User: What shape does this take?
Amino acid sequence: MNTKTILLIDDEQNFLEPLTDALQYEGYKVLKARTGQEALQILEKEKVDLVTIDIMLDPGKNLKEQTNSHATGLFLCKEIRRKYPTVSAFCLSVISEIETIQKIESLGIKFIRKGETSLRKVLELLRSELTGIAFSTDYLKKKE
Amino acid sequence: MQKTDIPQSDLLQKVLQLEKENSKLRKQLEQVEKAKIEYLQNVSHQLVAPLNAMKWHIENLTEQRISIERARKVLRSIYSQATIAVHLAKNFRLMSNLEGDQSLVSLKEPLQEINLQRLLVNLADDFQPLAWEQSIKIVMVDEKFDRSPSVLAIKPLISQVFSNIIENAVKYSDGDSIISLTGKYMQSSNLFAVSIANRGIPLTKEHQEKLFTRGFRSEEAKSKYPPGTGFGLYIAKKIAEIHKGAIQAEAIDGQVVFTVTLPAKVS
Assistant: This one.
């Protein structure tokens, strides 16, 4: 069984809701952070197996000096890679600037275009990262 | 042919000056083009985001990843996202009209008698599901809203004034807070004033007027809610003015209060 913990760093409730529903269905424990600061606080306290990072995000009071709402995610990608190299990370965002995407991918973080990628595909990518098995359990569960 | 006696050095000077002006204009044009592209990208992002979120919700429903009880909530959420998408699309249409024609002549429909209380109850219903997501409640107390008189206005336009203010209030309010709607008829001036109060990003003196300028967004607003065009209140002001009304923002007891005044219909 999955008891892995996934931290969703995103402030768009629109996307958080369906993504949380799907991940909980798959058996993951889901944590959420709405600002960059919250994300780093959670990572300090909790054991997290995988994070998804949005790019345009409120940095939170403590990080205002270091980044801005258009680049909080990029800042987090670097911080997380530096501080938590073993945590799996995906960037889940709607941005389209190729330069930013390249920067993210150069950190070894896969970019998934939020919303435009089906939830099934997102689940598959996360699952394969966490377990090495590249399919969703949707089909199996329905047979049970 | 007439012979010109302008010395060559003067001509050269002139050419250089024209070239300089040309390059200045070119730069300005580039800036306008850049702003236009950014605006269009912003618009498309804002419209696409709720649609994509709806797709994810629908995928969960069709794949039966959620319980029936949860499905009801999800359907409500889809409804509220559709409301937002429609609201945004209307704003962009108004904006593109305003860019070419400040008086919105092309959108002028006949004036209608409108009961503002009823209009606002409907708008509050539309935005309540979205507000609930942050435990924000939109409240209209009957005793604090004069039932009459009505106002004469172009309904789709006037409705957009209030939905822009309410949408902002929902976006920028603190969680677990109340947005209150009040309406008052002022007999001496024959004006009907609707006030929308919320608690969230504080209003500074400096921003009081700036809020209504085209494209303005405060740093606090950008930080709290990164997407956004800064057009909502600009549109609201323009529409209020077309109706010979006014709109203002004040800080009262730690709340931000937007008041829209419109001429009441004299019966």
User: Anything to note?
Assistant: The interface with chain B takes residues 11-15, 17-19, 21-22, 25, 56-59, 64, 68-70, 94, 96, 114-116, 118-120, 138, 142 of chain A (CB under 8 Å). The two ends of chain A are 14 Å apart (CA to CA). Helices of chain A lie at 13-25, 36-45, 72-83, 98-106, 119-131, 138-143. The beta strands of chain A are 5-9, 29-33, 50-53, 88-93, 110-113.
